[in-house]
Specification:
Helix content: 10-25%
CATH superfamily of the largest domain: endopeptidase domain like (from Nostoc punctiforme)
Structural class: alpha+beta
Number of helices: 5
Order of helices and strands: EEEEEEEEEEEHEHEEHHEEEEEHE
CATH topology of the largest domain: endopeptidase fold (from Nostoc punctiforme)
Distance between the termini: 30 Å
Low-confidence stretches: 228-232
Mean pLDDT: 95
Strand order of the largest sheet: 15-20-16-17-18-19
Largest sheet: 6 strands, antiparallel
Radius of gyration: 18 Å
């Protein structure tokens, strides 16, 4: 097991800098090394997603992961995104305020967190508050909240329990469109990382706008992820 020793690192399709970014890993996340090639390691993360990471961006970090970051931290020579995992020694050495340190086992309601990221830019493959793609946004929120989701929108759709329609939907259910995923906030409002608005935004699917009408033409369904035991 190796861990990410840099704020945010790209997971690439191949062992080359110009290879497509397919996802990202953030500080303290653990990966299993599957192989080595041309200065890159082929790794698999907790969600089963595989890719290539530069060797220098992974290491063996001291201490058990005790905390997750409640918000981005920028300190002396370090930038750590929301959700980074730290040991007690690392938290102390970086001078991270106690108000930003959350016990790693604590669970949350993801909808209570989602709107704090309004305006975060859209980034293909992005999974951090420096830039999200649609499924990277939902996965990061659920992971921080205590529930592991698959990485891609299609996989997330297949993993959830079907919800009949919007009349039966709850806050926190995921709403799926062709190649896209959003989180339901209630009242047919969704929050999602999207190219149309350049980042994380709220869309009211009942407002009659051109964008909302378009989304409903590619609507695929609603899914619920039970057993997360969110406690707030």
């Amino acid at each position: 097991m190796k861990r990410v020793n840099f704020g945010v690192v790209d997971l690439r399709r191949g062992p080359r800098f110009r290879s497509e970014r397919t996802s990202q890993l953030i500080y303290g996340e653990g990966v299993k090394v599957l192989g080595s090639e041309e200065g890159y390691l082929r790794v698999v993360g907790a969600d089963g997603y595989e890719g290539y990471v530069q060797k220098t961006l992974l290491g063996v970090l001291d201490g058990e992961r005790a905390f997750k970051l409640a918000a981005r931290f920028v300190g002396d020579g370090v930038q750590l995104p929301f959700g980074s995992y730290l040991s007690e020694a690392e938290a102390k050495s970086h001078g991270i305020p106690k108000k930003l340190l959350v016990p790693i086992e604590r669970k949350f309601d993801p909808t209570a967190l989602a709107e704090r990221f309004l305006g975060v830019p859209y980034l293909w493959g992005g999974t951090s508050d420096f830039g999200y793609d649609c499924s990277g946004f939902t996965q990061r929120l659920f992971r921080y909240s205590g529930k592991e989701l698959p990485r891609n929108a299609g996989w997330q759709r297949d993993a959830g329990a079907r919800v009949k329609d919007f009349d039966h939907a709850r806050r926190g259910d995921l709403v799926f469109f062709s190649g896209h995923v959003a989180m339901h906030l209630g009242g047919r409002k969704i929050i999602h990382a999207n190219l149309r608005n350049g980042g994380v935004s709220v869309t009211d699917l009942s407002d009659g706008s051109e964008y909302s009408r378009y989304l409903m033409t590619i609507f695929q369904g609603i899914r619920r992820f039970e057993g997360a035991n969110f406690t707030g």
